[in-house]
Structures are given as structure tokens and as C-alpha cells.
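Table S4 entry, Sidoreflexin.
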Amino acid sequence: MTTDKRIDITQPLWDQSTFVGRFRHFAFISNPLLSLVPETELHQAKELYLKYKEGKEPSGTTIKQAVRAKQLYESAFHPDSGELQNVFGRMSFQMPGGCLVTGAMLQWYRTATAVVFWQWVNQSFNALVNYTNRNANSPLTTTQMGVAYVSATSAAMATAFTFKFVIQKRATNPILARFVPFAAVAAANWVNIPLMRQNEILLGLDVTDENGKIIGKSQLAPVKGISQVVTSRIVMCAPGMLLLPVIMEKIEPKAWMQRIRWAHIGIQTGIVGLFLTFMVPTACAIFPQRCKLSIDTIKRFEKDRYDEIVKNTDGKPPQYVYFNKGL
């Protein structure tokens, strides 16, 4: 190194106990431009990251180079397995992928065929994101993934049909039709994500003490973590899917908008993109990535898991156990 200063490359650069610190961290690794970085550069970053982690980086490596390697590695490689993630499932692709799909759902919502098709596209995209960001220590079988995918898609379609053909028919305000995609997406998230991560709930998730030492497992931990992830995903898409319909309902009747009807999909997609650029790191930062669970809660609802933790800590269990909630 050309300087005596070093960073802990395995830890976030900003204080994760604050919302601002978490926002800066997720903005750092979810930058949409990172999805354009070629694989060769990503693998070079991984190599430098791992060498720096062991203190064996090449002579002359600067802090700037280490930080860049950290950014590329954490944006593209799975935190558990270290495998290169599918580019379409990375958080850095949430803005470009999400704005295209969301823009289409908000533009083509008037017919049943359009609702069904775009909900299918959206849930296919969500399933890929959920699979990409799964806990690699709790792999799903092909059957489980298929059930999760079909169930989430069905939930989205059922919700869309319910809102479109039941509630909407009884309502006098036409803007309600524009909110059908959001209702369907929110409902499907509560099906898709838990099913994609069902093995974490069925088998339990590794929990650690404050120092990161694994001291046992808990089935309540993934329930809490998944609930927070679902909430974050819904918050992520809410501004674009709730505010944009109101905006479009107001401006679409304008003469100048009628003259450029061909551009409506582009306008909506662009606005959604602006929302998501800010909302992806905002939603990810709502809850700490390192989630904690009271040992008293485990003692009350998971007696066997609690006894295992007590055994592994020589009879001195910590007040809280920690785990990665996932994304």
C-alpha cells in the first residue's frame, strides 16, 4: 500500500446504525451504472477484494482502488456463495428493470389481457430478483421455485382481477383503475418472497452473537427478516405506482399530451426511473441489513432452538442474536 491507512473491506463504509448511513451504502452498491460493468472487470474486482481482505493486495494498491473493488464486488457477487449474480437480478438493475416493467403496467392497465400479461412479466422479474438474492445456505428445489413462481403470479392476477372487475365497477372515480397494478404487486410480494425463501422458515436461519459467531438457528429470524424485505419492496415501488397515476390522470386530458400519445409510455417510464433511482436505496435502508432478534422471543416461541443456543454459549446466551435479513 502507498499509505498506512486501510479500510475493513468486508464492512460498509458508512455507519449502518443510522438511516443516512444505510442509504449511502445502498446507493453505493445499487448504482444503475454498475449493471453495465463487464464481467472481466467484475472478476478482477473480486480478485482484488479477496486479496485485500487477506492483506495480500498488490504493492501500490490505493484506497480508491480498494473501495472501487468493494463496490463492484458487493454489487455483483452473492454475499454467501461469492458467485457472480445474474445481472437482471442484481439491485443495481432494479432501476432500469423496474422502470421498464412498472412503466408498462401503468400504461397498459385498461384491458384484462394487458393486466394479466404485465403482471406475469412483473412477477417473472420479481422471481428472478428474489432467487438471485436468496440465502445460498437454504437452496430451493426446482419444484419449490416453480410453486413460488406460479403462486405469486396467480396472487397478482387474482388481486388485479378483483380490483378491476369488482371494486372498480362499484367506484365512480376512474383513477382507481390506475391503482390496480400497485395492489396486485403488493399482494404478490407477500406471496412471492416468502415462498422463494421458504426453506429459511422451514429449516431455520443461522444466528450469531454480536461478534458474528454462529451460535444456533432460528425460524423466527427469517420470518422477521422476510417481513421487512417485503415491506421494503412495496415501499420501493409505491411512489411511482401511487403518485404517477395521479399525475397522468391530471395531464393526459391536456391538448399537448393528446398530441403526443405515442410518447406516454416513454414519459411514464422515465418518471418511474427517477422515482426508483432514489427509492431503491431508500427502501433498502429502512431496516438494518444486520437484523437482530431478542433471545427472550426465541425462548418463548422456539424452546428447542433456545436450548441449543444456551448450549453453544456455555449457558450465557446474548440478549440479542443477529442475522442477515437479505434483500
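The longest strand covers residues 214-218.
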